[in-house]
Amino acid sequence: MTERAEDLQLEALRAFTFLSWLRQDWGGVLIVACGLGQGGSALSIAGNVAGAGCLAIDQRAEVCRAAVRSGACDFVVNTVDEALRILKNEIRKRQPVSVALSMDEAAALQELLERGVQPEMFAAFGEGAVIAEDAALRFGALGAVVANFGQGSGIGVDVDARLGEFTAQRGLSSAVLLFHDGEQLRVRDAELLQLIPPDDPRRRWLTAAARFFHRERPHRRVVYLTSAERERLGV
Q1: Please, are residues 12 and 46 in contact by the beta-carbon 8 Å criterion?
Q2: Are residues 190 and 207 in contact, defined by beta-carbon separation less than 8 angstroms?
């Protein structure tokens, strides 16, 4: 699959699918993102859906507040101490949480490195991708998966390539399903949950997507489907 994400729900689906490719269980695991535009917000949502703790750093206070209002992040704080306090409490309980840190990105990353914070995955978006190049290399050297979502220097795992392999192996392609109202969407979500196998991570996506994207208009669901599933659904 080589298509580019064009909206938040699709980007979040892509990020969640990539996380599912990396590991099955993200409970008790930390993800760090630099930049909280659409890409960072999508990863924060995906991390939450997967069950991880996610720290998204962006010096733009208005962007961080907007991420909380939209539901992409649960909290916005101004210091690394505050962020780590929240993350440690929830990660210890293996509960998902997304924290927006409104702070200079370079300074925040340096403090995280100095304090020995070790994420399982690191990614950077927008202008933050350039700022975070050194941090990406250092986190990677410590064992973090550095995910390249197509921005910045190209350091790390090529997300597009991995998604292409993952979806091709399973015969999946993205589908955008549109509905006249929320009731039609809820009915189709229930049909999809009945259709998709119990151990398939797409079930987790569908359950959470209803919570994160209920304000979207028009009403729609973005999901990966096989050709057989499309035929059964008539889409």
Answers
A1: yes
A2: no
Query: How many Cβ atoms are within 10 Å of 200's Cβ, its own excluded?
Result: 14
CA gap 182, 27 in Å, rounded:
30
Q: Give ∠ CA 210-212-214 in degrees, rounded to 5.
A: 55
| Domain locations along the chain | 8-161, 171-233
What integer pLDDT is reported at residue 4 of this predicted model?
Answer: 39
Instruction: Tell if the pTM clears 0.85, that is, is over it.
Output: yes
- Span 75-92, pLDDT tens digits: 999 999 999 999 999 999
Q: Which CATH class is domain 8-161?
A: alpha beta
- Segments of the chain with pLDDT less than 70: 1-6, 151-153
Amino acid at 168: A
Listed residue (123, 71, 116, 59) closest to 96, CA to CA = 71
Bond from prior residue into 197 cis (ω within 30 degrees of 0): no
pLDDT of residue 127: 79
In 3D space, the residue among 48, 147, 60 whose CA is nearest the CA of residue 98 turns out to be 48
